[in-house]
């Protein structure tokens, strides 16, 4: 079976271009690589993504410790470590401001 039209290539997701437009005679399919958070979520399994979705905004560092125990090499490992660091760093109490006492100017 032969095609009657030009060979099409997958270019931008959802857009096809001809092999001639791409400068090749061979049809190719370009794959977009996931990046950043998308890549992390892509690597995680469904159960791990669900667990992370439940705890990612938690203010309790123990939630992140449990996540790391369950998924020691998990896709969200670095984010969990960062949250533990932020939540457990010592809090510096705000300085109390004492009202300044105005001293009279010398005569």
Would you mind describing this structure in some detail?
The chain has 107 residues and is mainly α. The protein has a domain at 58-89. It has helices at residues 19-22, 36-43, 46-55, 61-70, 77-88; strands at residues 8-10, 16-18. The chain has a two-stranded antiparallel sheet with strand order 1-2. The longest helix has 12 residues, at 77-88.
Structural class: mainly alpha
Main sheet characteristics: 2 strands, antiparallel
User: How far apart, in Å, are the first and last alpha carbons?
Assistant: 108 Å
Rg, rounded, reads 29 Å
- Report the average pLDDT across residues: 74
The helix-strand sequence is: EEHHHHH
Summarize the structure.
This protein is mainly α and 107 residues long.
What's the layout of helices and strands?
Layout: E1 8-10, E2 16-18, H1 19-22, H2 36-43, H3 46-55, H4 61-70, H5 77-88
Antiparallel strand pairs: 1-2
Key attributes of the depicted protein:
107 residues, 5 helices, two-stranded antiparallel ribbon, mainly alpha
């Amino acid at each position: 079976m032969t095609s009657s039209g030009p060979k099409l290539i997958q270019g931008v997701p959802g857009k096809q271009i001809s092999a001639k437009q791409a400068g090749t005679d061979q049809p190719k399919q370009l794959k977009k690589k996931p990046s950043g958070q998308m890549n992390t979520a892509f690597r995680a399994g469904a159960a791990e993504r669900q667990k992370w979705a439940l705890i990612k905004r938690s203010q309790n560092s123990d939630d992140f410790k449990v996540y790391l125990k369950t998924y020691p090499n998990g896709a969200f490992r670095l984010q969990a470590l960062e949250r533990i660091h932020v939540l457990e760093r010592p809090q510096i109490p705000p300085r109390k401001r004492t009202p300044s006492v105005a001293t009279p100017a010398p005569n």
